[in-house]
Amino acid sequence: MLACSAGLSLAASPALVQAQAAGQPATNPQVQDAADDNPLGIPDSVQILGKSDPNLRTATALVNGTVITGTDIDQRVALVTSASEAEIPPDEMVRLRQQVLRNLIDETLQIQAAEAQELAVTDEQVNAQYLQLAAQNFGQEPEKMDAYLTGVGSSPASLKRQIKGELAWSSLIRQNVSPFINVAAEEVNDVLTRMEQSRGTEEYRLGEIYLSATPANREAVLQNAQRIIEQLRQGGSFVAYARQFSEASTAVVGGDLGFVRLGQLPGAISSAAATMQPGQLNGPIEVPGGYSIIYLIDKRQVLMADPRDALLSLKQISIGFPAGISQADAQARLEAFGTGVEQMRGCGDADQAAAALGATVVTNDQIRVRALPEQLQNIVLGLQLGQTTPPFGSIEEGVRVLMLCGRDDPEQSSGPNFEQVMNQLEEERINKRAQRYLRDLRNDAFIEYN
């Protein structure tokens, strides 16, 4: 779900309060507009009496007695920026550190709340999750992930602390939020009916980064969202930024909303998503309560088979180029390869013909179309048996083609069942209430900055 909850209630201006107390109706549109634009009643001209440069404050904090150090911030910042290809400017780094500090404060509050309710996360739980992440990214060698984290300026301890915060928050939600969420059978049946009526329309799998904003800080939040967009376009990981910066509960899964229909989204998000293709980024988009950055992961048609779920049998035919080869010789070898591929007589002839060209052949019998690079998906879907894609690659990495040798199309989709729809509705409501829960933890906290 998209976290679009409203901000905290703010007091009206003193003049408006006095008028209401005297029983006078505050119906003057200009007075009401002024109250909406300036909910705290702060004068337009403000004289700052203390230090006004937030950058002079050391970026450390004491949260209900727990210390967040500069090293904690340094290592978490390194974890966020490790995927970015461009160097981050100094002023942007200052803002990034401030945001990371706010995230670490939330994380600390979540860990403390879990411990206070006897839901403390054990080292065994954290290590098991850490090993699972290592297996996903570095095979069965967690020491490689240790070395990677240290190499980018972070540490295994920093990632484990983030894991601990996520596990603690999940435990709190399971105990204090989930049991009090109810979805009626009639609601689920209504959704299933609407889905059947929407058969053939498109669903969008979106990633989100949601940043809450109030009238008082809206401009600053907008600027922060624009900086996040810039970093993502320079190679930053959407999943990493969502985990660190998004204030939606989907942050724990890298901002992944799953598949949703446009009608389920706020109007501005719906309009933006409708124009996007998989892999595109959009935002910041103003939504109730703040701003959202969205990333289109995938899209499909409701209750329809997706051709990208077809299983393919492919032969990958490739050639390499010796180091130092001249441009003329490389071009001649490439042309000979292209001509030879065109003359192949289907998959039965591929191995022998490839050997004559000095090419290698790798056969893959269970390749799903969506597993291929996006640029190749539509090309492969248009092939007949025995046909090949155009050559692709480079002199440095080798040039190859894919030959289609078999295709098993997906069966018609039956769509989600009753239980799956109920789980989705419950998750949406849990996410909304979780946001309110976190705001309560912040409001009750004692935080000192050093």
Can you describe what's shown?
With 450 residues, this protein is α+β, with helices and mostly antiparallel strands. The chain has three domains: 54-178, Porin chaperone SurA, peptide-binding domain (Triger factor/SurA peptide-binding fold, Orthogonal Bundle), CATH 1.10.4030; 184-305 and 424-449, Chitinase A, domain 3 (Roll), CATH 3.10.50; 307-408, Chitinase A, domain 3 (Roll), CATH 3.10.50.40. Helices cover 46% and strands 17% of the residues. A hairpin with a 2-residue loop joins strand 5 and strand 6 (290-301). It is globular and about 75 Å long. The two termini are 37 Å apart. Residues 1-35 have low confidence and may be disordered.
Counting helices, strands and paired strands, the structural category is alpha+beta
Strand order of the largest sheet: 4-3-6-5
According to CATH, what is the topology of the largest domain? Chitinase A, domain 3
* Average residue pLDDT: 82
Unreliable parts? 1-35
Percent helix range? 40-55%
Largest sheet, in brief, is: 4 strands, antiparallel
Given the C-alpha coordinates, what overall shape results? globular
